[in-house]
Every structure is written in structure tokens, then in C-alpha cells.
Amino acid sequence: MAVGTSGLSKAGDALPRPYAQDGGQGIDPDDLPDGLVVADESGRVVCFNAAAARITAIPREAALGRPLEMALPLEDLEGRRWWNLTDPYGGLAIRAGQPERNLLLPGGREVLVSARYVRHEPTGPVRRVVVSIRGTEARRRTERSHAELIATVAHELRSPLTSVKGFTATLLAKWERFTDDQKKLMLETVDADASRITRLIAELLDISRIDSGRLEVRRQPVDLPTAVGRHVQAHISNGQPPDRFLVRIQQPLPDCWADPDKIDQVLGNLLENAVRHGGGTVTIEVSAAPIKTADDSAKGTAVTVSDEGTGIPEESMGRVFTRFWRGSKRGGTGLGLYIVKGIVEAHGGSITVGRGPGGGAQFRFILPVGAPAYLA
Q1: pLDDT confidence band for 297 (50 / 70 / 90)
Q2: Which of 207, 263, 279, 329 is the most buried (most CB within 10 A)?
Q3: How far apart (Å, rounded) are the C-alpha atoms in residues 325 and 273?
Q4: 97: phi > 0 → left, psi -120 to 50 → alpha, else beta; which?
Q5: Cβ-count burial of 118 within 10 angstroms (0-12 exposed, 13-18 middle, 19+ buried)?
Q6: Could you report the per-residue pLDDT of 100-135, keeping only the tens digit for each?
Q7: Which of 16, 14, 10 lies closest to 2 in space, CA to CA?
Q8: Mind giving me the DSSP string for 316-374?
Q9: What is the CA radius of gyration of the chain?
């Protein structure tokens, strides 16, 4: 980022000419979102922008003109003075800077600091030390999110694992005392709890792949109407009345190349939410849909799942696809819709939530035609 000299009157007017590389259109250091601290070849601070003063709680006037190690007295997490360890002016001549790391200011304030050593020649003396400072709030939020994920999964695993352990221990200890029907009931419970554990672990792996951008999509021809019918039939087999579901297929439909397992996961999650949390008739509609492109010529397939329940409050619709959103009813991990969104977007599609014609929640996702895995 080029910072022009025209904006340095408040932060220090001694910065060298290389800070003006943008055709004279200078950027005031105070406009930068991160803290910027610059020390000259003598080690004295010549720039200390407003963000640096805000993040470090060190007044600009107290930093300008002072030696860098005194203006910015940083320590590592073991209490060692960072500038003595790194020695930017007297250290290795091939060193170009320091990667970002957590450091502490007096009073225990934690900041993220990285540094670059500017030399006029590859192994020449350091002419400037440019330090970037960021607050730790964003990282703390990420850490809290990860901690909440671990706590949620641990909580959800505890119940089925306790059940599995209890039933298996009872069967092993008192096998002869139970009738065949009792044994079958306990083993069926163990099997159901084991399946629940497997789903939780699969969710955790999916989240890891989504967050890291490594969610793989293996495209094959997918018959969406058939897939919808299969999920509806599964709910009917589990005790839902057949008239609870209304399936509409608007032909003709474009070919759809997608990952069948992941699309099953999306459909299963949306229908499960509609059945469990919605009310009235659950309507599933499959239709062709245009995809927004430069010439609006691309086609895709849209699947809409709506119910006639109370719906989702307007103020909550922006959070539906975030982690741990559970709506007004507790239960589950709150990770399903986050995973659904990740899967749809990994296919290049989009998903939205709104209010259906019957007043309940309406989820609509659109998948592009896609291409076979061997052509992708």
C-alpha cells in the first residue's frame, strides 16, 4: 500500500520519498484501518498513525521522535523484550522482517504485530522499520467460535455415548437375564445412538472442510425429483402422514450435475427442519431457474421447501445460515443450515430464506447445470 507524503503532517513529516508512489495521490496514514508505525534509519519513530494510537493506547505525541523500542515497548508472551530479540538494525543482513505474532504492551494489552525491514540494497543497512499493528478482537471472536463448536459437539456427543456405554455394559453383564425382545430393543437403541454420533462427526468434518475451502464436489447426474421423492417417502415411513407433503415438479428440467451424496444431505436437512420445526403442509417444488450471468442465458435447477408454520422472524433471517442458529426452538447443534449453505455454494449455487405462501419458512436453493467430474 502506498502512503503519500501529502497526508503525513499529523503523523510525522520525515518519511522518505518511497512513501509517495501513487502519482501524487497521497493517502493519509490515519485513513489506514490497521496501526502503522515507521522508524527511520536511526531507529526513531517518524510515523504513528491514529489506528496505532487507538490500538496501543499510546498517545501519538508520546511516540513520535522517540526510539522505537521505547515508543513501542513490546514483549513476547514469555516476558522477553521483543526488540532485543529481533534486533532489526543490528541483526542478520538478509532478514526482511518479522511475521505476525501475538505480543504484549505494558499493562498486558495484547496486539498482533508484524514488521518489515526496508533496505536500499539487498544486504545493506536498514533504512526504515515499518510495523503493522492489529487488535486481537477478530482472532478472539474466531477462537470463541471454535471453542463454542467444540463445546456444542462435546455436549451433543455426551448423551448418545452415555446411552451406548450404558446399554452395552448392561448387556455384557446381564445378557442371560434379558429376553430376545429386550435385547433387540437395547441393540436398536445402541444402533440409533451410534448413527447419531456418526452424523455429528460428519458435520464436524464438513464444517472443517467448508471453513478451509476444501469441500470436494464430485459431480454426477442427479435426478432431483427422484431424490425429493425418496426423502419424502422416508418421512412417511417414519410415521408422517402422506398428506403432510406436496411435491410439485415443473417440467422440463435442465440436466443437473452435482454431488448426489451432498445434495441428499441438503434435501434431508431442509425437509427435516420443515417437518420438525414447521407446521401444516410441507411443499417441495422443483423447477428450472435462470442463473445470473452476463447474458442471462445460463439455466439451473431450483428447489423450494416451504411449510405453513410460524416462520422465521424477520430480524433472524440474516442469521439463519450462521453457526449455532437454532431459532426459537432449542435442540440439535445449530450447524445444519450452515453446512447446507456451504454445500450449495461449493456447487456454485445460492440459497435464500424467506416467508412462504402459507406464512411459514421458505428455503430456496438454485444449482447451476454444472459439469461432469472428469471435465471439471
Answers
A1: low
A2: 263
A3: 12
A4: left
A5: middle
A6: 998 999 888 889 999 999 998 888 999 999 999 998
A7: 16
A8: GGGGTTSTT--TTS--S-S-HHHHHHHHHHHTT-EEEEEE-TTSSEEEEEEEE----TT
A9: 30
In which residue are the cell numbers 510525522 written? 12
Nearest-angstrom CA–CA distance, 257 and 219: 5
Dist. CA 195–CA 189, nearest whole Å = 10
Q: What integer is the mean pLDDT of 20-47? A: 81
pTM above 0.70, yes or no: no
DSSP annotation of 123: T
How far apart CA 41 and CA 65 sit, in angstroms, is 12
Asked if 1 and 27 touch (Cβ cutoff 8 Å), the reply is yes
Separation between Cα atoms, residue 359 and residue 366, nearest integer Å: 22
Cell numbers for 287, please give them.
423447477
171/4 Cα distance (integer angstroms): 77
Query: Which residues does residue 38 pair with via DSSP β-bridges, in sequence order?
Result: 47, 130
Angle at 206 between CA 292 and CA 338, to 5 degrees: 55
What are the pLDDT digits (tens) for 91-108?
A: 888 899 999 998 999 888
